[in-house]
Write a structure and sequence with these properties.
By secondary structure, the protein is α/β, with parallel strands linked by helices. The chain contains 14 helices and 7 strands. α1 (7-23) packs parallel to α5 (77-102), α3 (46-56) runs antiparallel to α4 (62-72) and α9 runs parallel beside α10 (251-272). It is an enzyme of class 1 (oxidoreductase).
């Protein structure tokens, strides 16, 4: 007897039922009344409802509608199909509107870089205007706890400046708070363990008052104090003969550049690997001189950067297989840091980059810091063994377009 219901009544019942299951709420008193009238047809049309629900997923087949037509005595499937489709579109709009209204007071969705609960050790922070400091700030802004390793001869000045508030302006994070450095460790990454330290260094007055500053000892100290870290950053380099052309560089100067600028990373990761939590991240800083000729960047430093990038790939494999640690390098563009000024031509390099890079602007340390935060985050969970260029695209250029040779070409300029 129930199969003899009017076709129009069955249509209204089915539509109301589907609408109910889609919205999961009664939008008005009228819709509640419709649900009440749907009950007589609900049991007899259960299989028909499954067919109509399948249509919402794009699986509509004419056979299903034939069953529905015979079950509810609908003479033609076409008007029903058209009416239902248009009604579905209206419902989609309503659902979207309802969801938007329900989330008006909630934070906007997105892909935040969240490093809360993570701990980072950044080797090579000795002032507030280098890439190491910028990386520390970005990691802190994302919620990470910050530990730093500072070159022993610069330790007292750095700690004093921090304590006296000289870096307070540079410590300001996006939310207005100040970056906190939980602990500063003395570090000289040229020496792996105490046995490697020569006597003249041990007695050097610049090292007086500091202890446990070799790589091995620094890792042991961090383990003793905190147990583990999640992020390791290598932001240090030194070439005692950097201003000399390669042909005039001594063996001692060349090997010193490789020791301080590339092997130091191998040593750092070797000694910290046991205390880096599985799934952690390690990052180093490199420069385009590793693969392009940069006159003036001598003393074996270009060779050291090339070695660093090669080591990054090998370390990514070894650290990845052992503990799931990701290892990447950031090839950063020129920055007016104190370390860069020691080379003597940093202003020239910045001007050259601004004139020739696809993005004609000066690179900020913050942009490098933010890239490091991304690489350290779960958003980069499948990125390892790579060199990420953060240089306004200068690495992609094959020629310097500011050359007089190209003056007749219509080369676009940046619109400011």
């Amino acid at each position: 007897m129930r199969l003899k219901l009017l076709g129009s009544a069955c249509f209204g019942s089915l539509f109301s039922l589907v609408r109910f299951h889609l919205l999961k709420m009664a939008t008005t008193a009228a819709s509640s009344l419709q649900m009440a009238t749907a009950r007589p047809c609900m049991s007899s049309s259960r299989r028909a409802f499954v067919s109509s629900a399948a249509m919402l997923n794009g699986n509509f087949k004419l056979a299903s509608w034939t069953k529905l037509s015979s079950a509810c005595h609908i003479a033609s499937t076409q008007p029903f199909h058209r009416s239902f489709t248009s009604s579905s579109l209206k419902m989609d709009k309503f659902v979207t509107k309802a969801m938007a209204g329900a989330s008006e007071n909630k934070p906007a969705s997105g892909l935040p870089i969240d490093l809360k609960g993570k701990r980072a050790f950044i080797a090579g922070v000795a002032d507030d205007n280098g890439y190491g400091w910028a990386i520390a700030k970005s990691l802190a802004a994302a919620g990470a706890e910050i530990l730093v390793g500072t070159w022993v001869p610069a330790l007292n000045i750095f700690e004093s400046s921090l304590r006296r508030g000289k870096f307070d302006e540079s410590r300001v994070l996006p939310d207005g708070s100040l970056m906190e450095i939980t602990k500063i460790y003395p570090l000289d990454a040229v020496f792996d363990n105490p046995e490697d330290v020569p006597e003249d260094i041990k007695t050097n007055k610049r090292y007086a008052g500091s202890s446990k500053w070799t790589v091995q000892e620094a890792a042991e100290s961090v383990k003793s104090d905190f147990g583990s870290v999640d992020i390791l950053v290598h932001s240090l380099a030194n070439g005692p003969e950097v201003v000399k052309p390669l042909l005039e560089t001594s063996r001692k100067g060349y090997l010193a550049a490789l020791s301080a600028s590339s092997y130091s990373y191998v040593s750092l990761l070797k000694h910290f690997l046991p205390i880096i939590n599985p799934g952690g991240s390690s990052i180093s800083l490199t420069y385009i001189a590793s693969e392009r000729i940069i006159p003036g960047y001598g003393g074996g430093m270009s060779s050291a950067k090339a070695a660093l990038e090669s080591d990054t790939r090998v370390l990514a494999f070894e650290a990845g297989r052992r503990k799931g640690i990701r290892v990447n390098a950031i090839s950063a563009g020129p920055l007016r840091s104190r370390a860069a000024k020691a080379i003597g031509f940093i202003d020239m390099m910045i001007d050259y980059s601004s004139a020739n890079a696809p993005l004609q602007k000066e690179l900020s340390a913050e942009e490098v810091g933010n890239t490091a935060a991304f690489l350290a985050s779960p958003l980069a969970s499948a990125i390892t063994g790579g060199v990420i260029y953060v240089d306004n695209g200068l690495n992609a250029m094959g020629v310097g377009v500011d050359s007089p040779i190209f003056e007749k070409l219509d080369i676009p300029k940046a619109q400011h």
